[in-house]
Specification:
Order of helices and strands: HEHHEHEHEEEHEHEHEEHHEHHH
Strand order of the largest sheet: 2-1-3-10-4-11
Low-confidence stretches: 1-20, 320-326
CATH architecture of the largest domain: 3-Layer(aba) Sandwich
Number of strands: 11
Oligomer: single chain
Number of domains: 2
CATH class of the largest domain: Alpha Beta
Radius of gyration: 20 Å
Structural class: alpha/beta
Helix content: 25-40%
């Protein structure tokens, strides 16, 4: 699904002494959130007076490909959510993942589609609560959609394995991207190639930039998500004979749908219900390899591999990471 890339510059929100005194567990969450049920996501406010009850809903996403094309692709879902919730719903276009996470933290967004790598950052830094992921119908197995990290090279290049890329120009997408940065940093050393030590990481900004950059000769190779490559193939931007894949990882979850932790519980339940009842348009089904709906997601279970990769990659998923990268 959506993947990302950018460094976060987030506003520090005030923390009252009472909040600090009454929270018995935070885990990796920022200090303005609490996780007393230990599900790794922010708990709702204890004071019902702090529940948010917006008059309209803003939906955003983690941008990675053409923003206007992506917004049009999701128009039927936006319309469905408006009908189902009986509230105005607007697609809030952002041009960086940092902006999406910042908007969530500041309370401007109520729910959002997030890339795999963005999800843990939004959970820990912005109080987002993952509740659904793109999935298959029961007839097709009823599973959440996944993707693989691949390393792509030009078809006529001499590179056959990761170790052949020592000293070469290798594109990553952005620091917080799972497939485009954190997974390569965690997984490549076992294959004989260590980012930053064996090659200088070049951040391209987006997966499509990395892929087309390899084909133009800007990079010798690129670490990207295979579902993004599939979409570029479907749109004719990339041709099958132009590239080779020299590495494929295990599967990772293809992003998430998240809610703000402090929404009024009845509104949060309605958004969940409406999301899970939506059936994809033919265009979405084609874009997501036959997936046709959202399925319930449990962050603690379904994102365990992503959190593990982030820790192994040296990219901690908390406020320390964006602060260090400014």
């Amino acid at each position: 699904m959506i993947r990302f890339g950018a460094c976060f510059v987030l506003l520090l929100l005030p923390l009252g002494a009472a909040a600090a005194d009454t929270c018995t567990n935070r885990g990796d969450l920022d200090t303005i959130y609490c996780d007393e049920d230990r599900d790794l996501t922010a708990d709702p406010p204890k004071d019902a007076a702090k529940f948010r009850k917006p008059s309209a809903l803003l939906l955003s996403y983690s941008p990675q490909e053409d923003t206007s094309t992506y917004e049009k692709l999701w128009e039927p879902y936006v319309a469905h959510m408006g009908r189902c919730t009986a509230m105005p719903v607007r697609f809030f276009q952002v041009h960086s993942s940092a902006a999406a996470v910042e908007a969530f933290r500041s309370g401007r967004l109520q729910f959002s589609m997030l890339a795999t790598g963005d999800t843990p950052f939004a959970v820990n830094v912005a109080g987002a609560v993952p509740y659904a992921g793109i999935g298959m119908s029961p007839e097709k197995g009823g599973k959440l959609l996944g993707y693989h990290v691949i390393v792509l090279v030009k078809n006529d290049s001499p590179f056959k394995k990761l170790a052949d890329l020592k000293g070469k120009r290798v594109a990553h997408t952005a620091p917080s991207s799972n497939s485009g940065n954190m997974a390569p940093r965690a997984l490549f050393p076992a294959e004989g190639l260590t980012p930053d030590a064996d090659y200088k990481v070049i951040y391209s900004g987006k997966h499509d930039n990395s892929i087309t950059g390899v084909l133009r000769g800007d990079y010798d190779a690129a670490a990207v998500a295979d579902d993004v490559l599939d979409r570029l193939l479907d749109r004719g931007i990339v041709k099958p004979g132009q590239y080779r894949i020299i590495y494929t990882s295990k599967s990772f979850p293809a992003g998430s749908m998240v809610l703000a932790h402090d929404l009024d519980p009845s509104l949060a339940a309605k958004i969940r219900e409406c999301t899970l009842s939506y059936r994809f348009s033919p265009q979405l089904i084609e874009a997501f390899q036959g997936a046709d709906r959202y399925l319930p997601m449990i962050y603690k279970r379904d994102f365990e591999a992503v959190r593990d990769v982030a820790k192994r990659s040296g990219e901690p998923i908390n406020r320390a990471t964006p602060a260090a990268k400014k």
